[in-house]
Specification:
Helix content: 40-55%
Radius of gyration: 21 Å
Order of helices and strands: HHHHHHH
Number of strands: 0
Distance between the termini: 79 Å
Strand content: under 5%
Number of helices: 7
Largest sheet: none
Shape: globular
Length: about 190
């Protein structure tokens, strides 16, 4: 018989369970400066890892590499999904205006519409596959309204149908944009020949 509670969360209380990694890193950085604790800098620079593979001098397993998405991106998707109540299509459209090559005023590296589409579909697919795991969790401190763990008043479904309609709409938009970019490139090359 297993004595583990709540699957992999074995603690009776998880005080940081409802805080995104991005916000947790900001808090650690604040505490490092405020209380003059330089040791906390190593927490900020360490690669997030579940330590599922042996750590060697040349290799550290990375959560972000394994997931194909960064924790900063997860925080953005979490806010779009929970706070803004956006699904795949709405999140994709919103991110086109902030993560694309035409947005010099944001901190995220520029991404093409196809890269944004791929990340959007990855997030919502993984979210739908794993949503059921969030219905029974260790009690946590909930500091933000987008916390994925706060299910006390969460009436969202925990089983999701496929996102075929939204993903098809996203793919068509990407194809339209790529075709438009190709046409613009051809027009530019023809103009160079004149």
């Amino acid at each position: 018989m297993s004595t583990q509670k709540y699957d992999c969360s074995s603690a009776d209380i998880n005080p940081i369970g409802g805080i995104s990694k991005t916000d947790l890193k900001a808090f650690i950085d604040w505490a490092r400066t405020k209380f003059n604790l330089p040791i906390l800098g190593s927490f900020l620079t360490a690669a997030p890892t579940a330590e599922l593979e042996p750590i060697t001098s040349s290799y550290v397993q990375s959560d972000e590499a394994d997931m194909g998405i960064t924790y900063d991106e997860l925080s953005i998707f979490g806010r779009l999904r929970k706070n803004a109540k956006l699904g795949p299509w709405g999140a994709y459209c919103k991110l086109l205006g902030t993560w694309d090559n035409l947005s010099p005023h944001n901190d995220h590296p520029p991404l093409s519409p196809r890269q944004i589409a791929d990340k959007t579909k990855l997030f919502f697919t993984k979210y739908a596959v794993n949503r059921h795991k969030m219905t029974v969790l260790t009690p946590s401190l909930h500091m933000e309204q987008y916390s994925p763990d706060d299910n006390r008043f969460d009436l969202r479904p925990f089983l999701y149908p496929s996102f075929d309609w939204a993903y098809t709409k996203i793919d068509r938009d990407v194809e339209r944009r790529e075709k438009g970019e190709a046409e613009e490139e051809m027009e530019g090359k023809e103009g160079d020949l004149d």
